[in-house]
Amino acid sequence: EEDKEDESEEEDNDPRQNRAPRRKTLQRKNNDGKTTEKGVSRKRERDKMASTKEQRDSENKEKKTNKEKGKEKENKEKKERRSSTPSTSNSSDEESLSEEELAMLMEQVEQKKKLISTMRNKPWRMVKKLSMLREAQAFVEKFEGALGKGKGKKLYAYKMMMAKKWVKFKRDFDNFKTQCIPWEMKIKEVESHFGSSVASYFIFLRWMYGVNLVLFGLIFGLVIIPEVLMGMPYGSMPRKTVPRAEQATAMDFSVLWDFEGYIKYSALFYGYYNNQRTIGWLKYRLPMAYFMVGISVFGYSLMVVIRSMARNANESTGEGDDENFVFSWKMFTSWDYLIGNPETADNKFASITTSFKESIVDEQESNKDENIHLRRFLRVLANVLIICCLCGSGYLIYFVVKRSQTFSKMQNIGWYERNEVEIVMSLLGMFCPPLFETIAALENYHPRIGLKWQLGRIFALFLGNLYTFLLALMDDVNEKLAEEDVLRNMTHWTLLSHHNSTGNGSTATPPPLDPADVPRGPCWETTVGIEFVRLTVSDILVTFVTILVGDFIRACFVRFVNYCWCWDLEAGFPSYAEFDISGNVLGLVFNQGMIWMGSFYAPGLVGINVLRLLISMYFQCWAVMSSNVPHERVFKASKSNNFYMGLLLLILFLSLLPVAYTIMSLPPSFDCGPFSGKKRMYEVIQETIELDFPLFVAKIFSYVANPGLIIPAILLMVLAIYYLNAVSEAYQRANAELKKKMQMLREEEKNKRNNKTSTNSAMQDLEDIFKPNTKSENQPKQVEDKKIEPPNKSSPVGKQGKAAAEDVGPVNGSRGVALTPPLHMVVTRPPMPGVRTPYPGPRPHGPVPWRGRGYPRY
Amino acid sequence: LSREDFQRIPELAINPLGDRIINAFFSEGEDQVNFRGFMRTLAHFRPIEDNEKSKDQNGPEPLNSRSNKLHFAFRLYDLDKDDKISRDELLQVLRMMVGVNISDEQLGSIADRTIQEADQDGDSAISFAEFVKVLEKVDVEQKMSIRFLH
């Protein structure tokens, strides 16, 4: 055991040393060991120092143990050795150490610290490492306090202690944060049953929940709460009161379900907010806050999505063509090691089998000749059909929205007419994707490509639907705007007439008209908000009902009715449902898009979404575990991550557009909302700048807003983008070059190891000149200057001649400059087999059959 | 720890390569693995951190480097430890992964095809370097890492 031999060394080297102090040292070491035992075991995980307790032994003992420890270290350490033990004078200086002692002490402490931090990499045995570690830690603990001079001692020790405590605190906090991640166990369970691709959906869902929570916090805290706490209460103003005509039915559930009635006139919607510039005793600027929160919702979402994309891009090692190693990859990487459930493992077996069979079939098929023209025709036909479907669905939605406008003017409308738009959109979303899939069977694509097409088409479908919906809504808005003009006059006249009628003959101020009686303008923003909320709610309902019926009821049916059914329900149709990852992810993405669009007009929408995501998490986890079966097909999860983020980003931009358009170019309603009375919504910013900020700020802004300044700024940003793009491309190219280099290195090594001749074409030519009857595999390569090239390998005796040519090293065939030295060499020294030819520079002597890596010396 | 203890882990029990993974923990001829050996094997799965790449260029490569991870995987397939995966070894693996659902000749042709894809020096076996080349595009650093604190 090395410990013993070290100790014996110690004894040998220090014969004079009496046992007592060493025993004391050992004892102290043991004491420290014991007391720091717990600390040591904790430190196993962290490679930092223990939390200190300040120990102040007497200076004498310190110096002595210092000396001993110095000697011990000399013997034990294999790294730097201290040549001199500290020249500690045994004269007792209780108070201070001299300068050099201090410096040396500090050095020693630093050494010990370094030893502690690199302990893991040392090639020692565990027992020895443990003892060294304990000793070093004890030393550090004891002497750290001794550093620092005089009064500074205490401060220094204190600082060190605080630093260590801070590190420990950070570590504990990290652990705590990890424990706080919600739903981790649930997701792990799903992962072990269904594989990593299904779990990735749930991770995405959790991430979305986090984002929505932040957005909700923003909106709730900065807009809704101030309004509720400090704004005018319900019923005080016309905009905040249910109009007289509707009051009779305002509490009916059916009315509430449609988000009319009391809900419409609440803080959940745009129309409730007052346009008072400041409210409450805090002088909280509500309109400004509303505007800024609306903008920052988009800003925050953008930032979060892009950051997540960047992080994903870092992790992925680049998309290459993966058709090269199909079978090898299937062989080596197809098992999902995270599966822990036997049933899933059986499924995985089956899916691996299927995937091998598929690959075999693919191979056979690709070797077949096929009719390219037929295939192209079919693909074009399929695309035409699908475009027809998309257009058809778009028109259908437009038609339905138009109809709903006429419905809203009628009196007796049934439930169906009221909700027709949402029903139609949900139905389209449910039936069109399978339709696309069946049409896509015509196309005969590779499944992965087919999946991408499918996702793209579903995306187009949803997008088309959404935008058609928006267009129809815009028509509605414009109508309302026209109506407003008319109503504005009417309201004005009504108020006037009311004043006249009540003020006739009395000088007292007329009683204000009851807010419920004031004729109200159509509040288009609230209407828009209501539409979005209803759409979201119906989407939620449809999703949940689909899961319930499509998965759960189906599973129950298959399980229980199977006993008395003609064919095997579990194996054939309908069997258990698989978890539709892409459909669910797209649904989530589109839902988020609608939230983004609607949150400006209905601040309460984000709250509804947060609730929905929460319920969705639990509900879908339960549904997956109880009624779904794992996938039949292999689905590589990692690559698709950025794809979904990209979709999210696209949706974010697309949902920003309508909101930005309405903010910039539509006039707000005259009697509802925080911007009422202004000509445009963004005027609130100008107002704030003028009134709230000191004068020069307004001037600065007016200068900055000058087009002459903005256009160069935009140009600059464009140039910066171009430059960064070029830089990143250069890096990618450099990356590829390095990879190639490494690859060639490996091949060179492998060739040498396999005892082959040089693989360079130039060398090949040379060899052919001298040994025309030899043959070898020729792999022409481009070799640039390799510093770490092993040219020193000399082949066995029989090929001494080749060794001559070879040992000069692989040379770049394309560069004429590098070519000349070997030629020169060969010319001056014609190789003769069997004769060892001396070469300039360090060369291996003798016919050494194998040489490891050498260093190139040309 | 003995082999039976490992086999009680469900994920290992149902893994077709489970036995080989368990063998990788035990050194030659031993039936028990102590904590150090256990840790040594698990150290292969530590995530690679950026700052680790810069230090310790002189010392031996850390156990969780990409090459060592791949080496660990390679040893799972190379049973006779001759640094090559031969056709027979591939056949064994295939049979474990697929069972009896595919005929033997098809398995043979799959193995042949795999070797054909991966082999570069024509020795009808997959050496370590070829193995590395095959898995070049696979994100081994991430996939073969156990992230405890994420």
From TrEMBL, chain A:
The keyword Nucleotide-binding does not apply. Residues 848-858 have a biased composition (Low complexity). One of its GO terms (biological process) is vestibular reflex. Pfam families: TMC. The keyword Membrane applies. Residues 1-13 have a biased composition (Acidic residues). Keywords: Membrane, Transmembrane, Transmembrane helix. Residues 1-99, 746-858 are annotated as: Disordered. It is a multi-pass membrane protein. Residues 29-83 have a biased composition (Basic and acidic residues). The chain crosses the membrane at residues 207-229, 288-306, 380-401, 421-442, 454-474, 600-622, 643-664, 700-724. InterPro entries: TMC (IPR038900), TMC_dom (IPR012496). GO terms for molecular function: mechanosensitive monoatomic ion channel activity; voltage-gated calcium channel activity. GO terms for cellular component: plasma membrane. Belongs to the TMC family. This is Transmembrane channel-like protein. It comes from Crypturellus undulatus.
Automatic annotation (TrEMBL), chain B:
PROSITE patterns: EF_HAND_1, EF_HAND_2. Pfam families: EF-hand_7. The keyword Transport applies. GO terms for molecular function: calcium ion binding. Residues 65-100, 106-141 form the EF-hand domain. One of its GO terms (cellular component) is nucleus. Belongs to the calcineurin regulatory subunit family. CHP subfamily. Keywords: Calcium, Cell membrane, Cytoplasm, Lipoprotein, Membrane, Metal-binding, Myristate, Nucleus, Phosphoprotein, Protein transport, Repeat, Transport. This is CHP1 protein. InterPro entries: Calcineurin_B_homologous, EF-hand-dom_pair, EF_Hand_1_Ca_BS, EF_hand_dom. The gene is Chp1. GO terms for biological process: protein transport. It is found in: Cell membrane; Cytoplasm; Nucleus.
